[in-house]
From TrEMBL:
It is an enzyme of class 1 (oxidoreductase). The lineage of its organism: Bacteria, Pseudomonadati, Pseudomonadota, Betaproteobacteria, Burkholderiales. One of its GO terms (biological process) is L-tryptophan catabolic process to acetyl-CoA. This is Tryptophan 2,3-dioxygenase. Substrate binds at F50, I51, I52, Q53, H54, Y112, R116, T253. Keywords: Dioxygenase, Heme, Iron, Metal-binding, Oxidoreductase, Tryptophan catabolism. Belongs to the tryptophan 2,3-dioxygenase family. It comes from Massilia cavernae. Binds 1 heme group per subunit. It catalyses: L-tryptophan + O2 = N-formyl-L-kynurenine.
């Protein structure tokens, strides 16, 4: 690099400097929109943390949904290797969100209490992307559509997802196509209902785990799903413990009892047979 280079505003180590005609980093990423979407409502310094923590979570949720829709399509098409790759990615994203709680836990009760009155009735309970993720994983609950206005895109998406087989339903259909004897009412059911444990599904997964060499792809699928559910459980646990640390046992802004509601959610089992079969191994 010559001294001239350092002085020339059109060149720094050969880097392109003029983007009047070309697409720049910020153009490509839509940074003008993203970086002007933080609107603190309180005078409190810590609200920026609260906003960015949620916005980044929503971006990761968006990617998780993008991946999970593709996982379901790949399972349906019997394309397992790409589905494995995506499931592994989603589990790692979930791990990242688990660790993100460490940042939010730096928010102390008095700091949050200064922000909370400005949140009104808004709550993560109303996150349509979170609800869609629960639905695509099989934790269906039609009653929760009501927080979304009927005419909105979010409502339509959630309604469509409520009626569609979950990723786990697709895995079970794959078991049947692989020759396992799955109960007919498990293969064609009311998809709006949450996953319920089924003995024929448990027996099929048990065979897979008893002969991994014979059923390697299904075995790998099962373990990828267990990885994902494990990460999700950690997320739920960190949520409720962080909430207890920050607001104690106050009622939630979304109207639920708060910590006791979130604790109840720790009982949700997304892929029941994949966990219950372990006792038999
Ligand atoms: C100080 C931080 C937080 C507090 C005090 C808090 C508190 C709560 C409470 C009390 C609920 C129950 C619903 C209600 O009545 O409002 C809830 C639900 C929820 N929160 Fe948070 N939360 C916090 C951070 C977060 C973060 C960072 C996320 C990430 C996106 C999040 C996502 C959710 C979701 C998705 C629900 C619905 C859970 C379900 O229905 O199973 N929350 N939160
Ligand atoms: N439910 C929380 C409020 C809350 O956490 C929240 C409010 C607005 C936007 C995101 C939120 N995060 C998760 O619920 C509370 O009761 O304090």
């Amino acid at each position: 690099m010559s001294t001239d280079d350092k002085k020339d505003p059109a060149s720094w180590h050969g880097a392109k400097m003029d983007f009047t005609e070309a697409m720049s980093y910020g153009d490509y990423l839509g940074l003008d929109q993203i970086l002007t979407a933080q609107h603190p409502r309180s005078p409190n310094h810590n609200e920026m943390l609260f906003i960015i923590q949620h916005q980044t979570s929503e971006l990761w949720l968006k990617l998780m949904l993008h991946e999970m829709h593709a996982v379901r399509a790949n399972l349906r098409a019997g394309e397992l290797p790409p589905a494995f790759k995506m499931l592994a990615r989603v589990a790692r994203i979930m791990d990242q969100l688990v660790h993100a709680w460490d940042v939010l836990a730096t928010l102390t009760p008095p700091e949050y209490s200064a922000i909370r009155p400005y949140l009104g009735a808004s709550s993560g309970f109303q996150s349509h992307q979170y609800r869609e993720l629960e639905f695509i994983l099989g934790n269906k609950n039609a009653a929760l559509l009501a927080v979304h206005t009927k005419t909105t895109h979010a409502y339509e998406v959630l309604e469509r997802e409520l009626h569609a087989p979950s990723v786990y339903d697709e895995a079970i259909m794959l078991l049947a196509r692989s020759g396992f004897d799955i109960a007919a009412d498990r293969l064609d059911r009311d998809w709006t209902q949450p996953t319920v444990a089924d003995e024929s599904v448990k027996a099929a997964w048990l065979s897979v785990y008893q002969q991994p060499d014979k059923y390697w792809a299904l075995y790998e699928l099962a373990e990828k799903l267990v990885d994902l559910e494990t990460a999700f459980r950690f997320w739920r646990f960190r949520h409720v413990t962080t909430v207890e640390r920050v607001i104690g046992f106050k009622t939630g802004t979304g109207g639920t009892a708060g910590v006791s509601y979130l604790r109840k959610m720790l009982d949700v089992v997304l892929f029941p047979e994949l966990f219950s079969l372990r006792t038999a191994l």
